[in-house]
Amino acid sequence: MKNDEVMNIAKKRGFLWSSFELYSGVAGFFDYGPLGAILKNNIMNKWREYYVIREGFFEIESPTIMPEEALKASGHVDNFTDPMTECKDCMEVFRADHIIKEAIGSDVEGLENEELSKVLSDENICCPQCGGYLTHVWSYNLMFQTVIGAKGKKTGYLRPETAQGIFIPFKRLLRFYRGKLPFGVVQMGKAYRNEISPRQGVIRLREFTQAEAEIFVNPLDKSHPKFCEVAYDILHLYSAERQSNGEHMVKMSAGDALESGTISSEMLTYQLCLAGRFLNDLGIPGNVVRFRQHLSSEMAHYAIDCWDVEIETDKYGWVEIIGIADRSDYDLKSHSQYSKEDLKVFIEYSQSKVVKKLVVKPLMSKFGPLFKADATKILEALKDIDASQIANTFKDKGKYELEVEGSTYQLSSDLLELQEVDETLRGVKIYPHVIEPSYGIDRIFYAVLLHCYCKEDDKVLLRLPADIAPVEVNVFPLLNKDDQSRIALEIRDQLRNDNIVAEYDSSGTIGRRYARSDEIGVPFAVTVDHDTLNDNKVTIRNRDDSKQIRIPISDVYQVIKDLSNLKISFKDLENEILQS
Length: 580
Ligand SMILES: [Zn+2]
Description:
The chain is 35% helix and 30% strand. It contains 22 helices and 28 strands. Strands 3-10-11-21-16-15-14-12-13 form a 9-stranded mixed β-sheet, with helices on both faces. Strands 25-24-26-27-28 form a 5-stranded mixed β-sheet, sandwiched between helices. Strands 4-9-8 form a 3-stranded antiparallel β-sheet. Helix 2 (34-54) crosses helix 17. Residues 87, 89-90, 92, 127, 129-130, 132 line the site of zinc ion (ZN).
């Protein structure tokens, strides 16, 4: 299986391995090794290029520990759960929907606990470990709980997602963007989910890295100014409708997907295209990527439209690696309600509007004598009451009863005059809607290894794009001789001074060194040979086709830099040399 070959190399060559191996390991935790840590950073920096630089969404960094109030407001304390069941014999715990899927093959995501319990008993599903009886299904909260402070009186949680760290300081971010929609803010960092029994390697981690963008838009305007640039991108779409009808996915241009209403808005469609381009830049080809729309049963009740970006794997089937959702105004509204802070945005009309408005005018000459000392607080309380409500009550009852600080006052219609006046409105206050692309960096990392890996005859190649490969160039002496080694080391050091990740290797035959280099995806190798001593030239070897060209040492630095930044391709270089 390709997965096993890739994970084997990942472990052996220093990309990725299970954490805490010395203490027999803990499921759901992985270490990034020397090459893995650089590769992961390169993937994250590529993501920054897309979202921070090109889209202009600034990045923030908020704490990974959050107080309970914030996660109560976001809904995580009450709803961030998985259905759990326990074996009465061996006491092992399982995710109910997962073992049902394993046992009978049906997808039961979104079913209530009662329904899941019924499926377990109706289908006679037993403990996959010992065959014992399984308990009723209950909701298990996935957050890691902790306490904040020495007295431990304040409950905290490790954050289950990075997004909340963007919603909470929304007012400051809005001010930073001068109060204008749309704007986007991103955050990259660790998030935590205490998965019940993760058994899918790097696919289901308890500590993982997210990259999320929260794009705040006017609910009435979900357009994207650069949509024309992506309108012809081809997407493999698997709409909810096609899934329900048991049909296959279809290839469609972004423009057609929008026009046909398959995807709900221009902004959302644009985000799907961006995700497709990003994966392509990481060496994950379009034919192993699909965009699957959430069925109404899996979609959160507040969401307007959700798409998972999935990649094909030989071991786990289609795996979600990115989620792109239109979350409506849910997040800002609930934080507003819980915190009592106004998180609305003022949207200015292009032209101010004049509207008729009913206002209440208390007749002061009667008010004072009638209510004496209470008059002031009654007048103050009246300001908060909608005039049309008073007008309606007058119509029904002929008077209005006003409660102020526990006392009730009878206001007859001769005390209050209702007047219609013209009011000029410059705009309206609304909760912005949020479009959220949410990337699982670890799963993307896995997808990159899986889909850049290839085997040609007995040769193993990791075809990582040159701009994300952890080692950019290897420098070898052809033979392990002092004079060749000395020049090779000088070249390596000069490359390092030029900010290029360069490694030196002189052990074993040159063939073995090339093979090792290909296996970890080093795109280029510079080789110093016997002739170098006379002509000051070296060969550059291209990983993907083993072709070589010979250039002066003085050109090596610029050439490697240009190749690494994808400014030129190896093919360009070959043509250039042929012509000169
Ligand atoms: Zn059991």
